[in-house]
Amino acid sequence: SAVISQKPSRDICQRGTSLTIQCQVDSQVTMMFWYRQQPGQSLTLIATANQGSEATYESGFVIDKFPISRPNLTFSTLTVSNMSPEDSSIYLCSAQLGTEESPLHFGNGTRLTVT
Amino acid sequence: GQNIDQPTEMTATEGAIVQINCTYQTSGFNGLFWYQQHAGEAPTFLSYNVLDGLEEKGRFSSFLSRSKGYSYLLLKELQMKDSASYLCAGLDSNYQLIWGAGTKLIIKP
Questions:
Q1: For residue range B51-108, what is the model confidence (pLDDT) as tens digits?
Q2: Which of A62, A87, A91 lies closest to A77, judged by CA?
Q3: At CA A15, angle to CA A14 and CA A21, rounded to 5?
Q4: What share of chain B is helix, strand, coil (3-state, %, to 5)?
Q5: Residue B79 and residue B107: Cα distance in Å, rounded?
Q6: SS3 for A2?
Q7: Buried (b) or exposed (e) across B52-71, using 16+ Cβ within 10 A?
Q8: CB-based contact B6:B105 (threshold 8 Å)
Q9: Over 90: is that where the pLDDT of A98 sits?
Q10: How many CB pairs under 8 A join A and B?
Q11: Is A103 part of the contact surface with chain B (CB cutoff 8 Å)?
Q12: CB neighbour list of residue B106: distance below 8 Å, 6 or more residues apart
C-alpha cells in the first residue's frame, strides 16, 4: 500500500495564470502518472512522469501546456499553464508500486476551477 | 478501437445484492481492474482479474470471462457506504489502462 499526498486539494484560478500541483508518495514507486477527471466522467491519462527525464504525453496533451517534473522516485509535479475555463477539472496523481499489472494508488486529487 | 462499457447508473436496496457489468474491447489483454470512487475522493483498488473465473474478497466478488470480453463486480449485503462510482479498467497488451466511465451505484434504505 502507499499514501499519496497531493496538494493543493483545490484552487480557484484566473485565466491566463498557471498552477503547479505537487504529489509525494511515501513508498518506493515504479511508475507515476497524472490523470484528469471531469465530473461524472472517466479518467483520462495526461502523461507518465519519468524520473529524471521528460514525461511521456498522451495524445491531446503537450509539454508546453502541462509541464511535468519528476526529480526523484517519489515526487512529481504537474503544472497547468496559461489556464482557461476548459482546464477546470479534477487532476489526479497516481503511482504504481510493483509490476505493470500492479494496481494504481491515487492521490485525493486537485479540484481546479478556472474563472 | 479500445473500449470499456459499463452502465451509467444503478440503484439497489440496502442489504441486497447488486451486479455491475463491464464489457471490454482491448488490443491484447493483461487483466481487468475494478476501482471504487466515493464522491469527491480518489479511486481505490478493489480487484484484479486476469484468469477466467470468480474471485471473492469479503462482500465483493469479481468475475472475468476472457472469451466473452466480460466482467462483473458483485456486491453482497449492500451497505449505505457502498454508494459510490465503480470504475472498470482493462489493461491492454502495452500495459495501458483503458478506463470505463464508471457506474454510479445508489443504495436506498
A1: 999 999 999 999 999 999 999 999 999 999 999 999 999 999 999 999 999 999 999 9
A2: A91
A3: 70
A4: 5, 55, 40
A5: 7
A6: coil
A7: eeeeeeeebbbbbeeeebeb
A8: no
A9: no
A10: 45
A11: yes
A12: B9, B10, B11, B12, B83
Phi and psi for A49 in degrees, rounded to 5?
-85, 120
Residues B51, B27: contact at Cβ < 8 Å? no
- Beta-sheet pairing, B103-108 with B9-13: parallel
Dihedral-angle region of residue B53 (phi above 0 means left; psi in -120 to 50 means alpha; beta otherwise): left
Ramachandran class of A101: left when φ > 0, alpha when ψ lies in -120 to 50, beta otherwise: alpha
Cβ burial, residue A51 (10 Å; 0-12/13-18/19+): middle
Q: What distance in Å separates the CA atoms of residue B78 and residue B14, rounded to the nearest whole number? A: 5
Chain A CB contacts of B30 under 8 Å are 100-101
Neighbour count for residue B92 (Cβ, 10 Å): 17
Cβ contacts (< 8 Å) between A40 and chain B: which residues?
Answer: 101-102, 104
Indicate the DSSP class of residue B80: G
